[in-house]
Amino acid sequence: MRVAFLGLGRMGALLAGHVRDAGHDVTVWNRHRRELDGARVADSVGEAVDGAEVVVTMLFDPDSVRAVAGELLEHAADGAVWVDVTTVGPAASRELGERAVAAGVRFVDAPVLGSTPLAEPGELTTVVGGADEDVERVRPLLGTWCADGKVVHVGPVGSGSAMKLVVNQSLGAVAAGLGEALGLADHLDLPRDAVLDVLSAGAYGWTLGQKRPMLESGDFSAATFSLSGLAKDLGLVVDAAGDHPVPLTREVRARTQDAVDEGHGDEDYAVVIARIAAGRD
After folding, report:
1. Active site annotated at which positions (predicted)?
2. What is the pLDDT of residues 108-135, one digit of tens each?
3. What's the pLDDT at 281?
4. 180 and 104, same structural domain?
């Protein structure tokens, strides 16, 4: 299959590598030119997309996808499938899907659950929105970066993006709760090692299994999911919620954005756990 892959950040490069390793004919493009062994490198979006059967976008936010959408759709072949893996929210996915259909291109939203530790071995989960026939057409491609059985068709276009926001809302909520629990434990003069051991056996176990070394060392530089990414996603959650009350998410989003504004955006999102534990606003 001829595949154009747009976006070679930390996650994009890993996903594109899995597509290449599965034997597909891959052309890549990145806003700042980057290469991928075994793939052609295009100098423009149009050059990358020309002749592709499937176009994958793995960018940062809705505006970054909109920025390439015009050129992508201008050059995409009739009947090609555009798979957007970017976390953009359901409204943006539906908007992009409508633009794609008007240009004769099929559209699937397929954000991934998990970060680089799962992306490297190809053990992610992908939540997918789109028409049945379009999802089945690209399922083998999505499977190149997923664990067996972890390509989950949720519903029509926008459903995958909606599910991704529900998942990342819980990520932010758990981070804030864990930070508050650690801060309370410090206030009660409990030894941090014992607290981490006990909390690891409960509701915070998954997060501590991933983030305990960072919390113990205080070094959040080796980001697997950046704080700026979490702040962006929580903003999308608030936008998607509209009039539906999400007071906890609004508070956590404010805390994460404050930390981004103070220069922590490129650090792992676990830095917000430490900040809340330390009583920092």
Report:
1. 164
2. 999 999 999 999 999 999 999 999 999 9
3. 62
4. no
Structure token pair of residue 183: 């801060």
Element (H, E) at 113: strand 112-113
> How many domains would you assign to the chain?
2
Tokens of 147: 């664990």
CATH number, domain at 235? 1.10.1040.10
> Are residues 211 and 251 located together in one domain of the fold?
yes
- Locate tokens 């379009």: which residue? 134
Both tokens of 178, joined, read 């864990």
Residues recognised as catalytic = 164
φ/ψ bin of 57: left (φ > 0), alpha (ψ from -120 to 50), beta (otherwise): beta
Whether 21 and 107 map to the same domain: the answer is yes
pLDDT digits (tens, 9 = 90+) for 218-261: 999 999 999 999 999 999 999 999 999 999 999 999 999 999 99
Q: Report pLDDT digits (tens) over 28-81.
A: 999 999 999 999 999 999 999 999 999 999 999 999 999 999 999 999 999 999
Last residue of a domain, one of 155, 173, 196: 155
Residues 38 and 20: beta-carbon distance below 8 Å: yes
Nearest to 91 by CA among 143, 165, 40, 36: 165
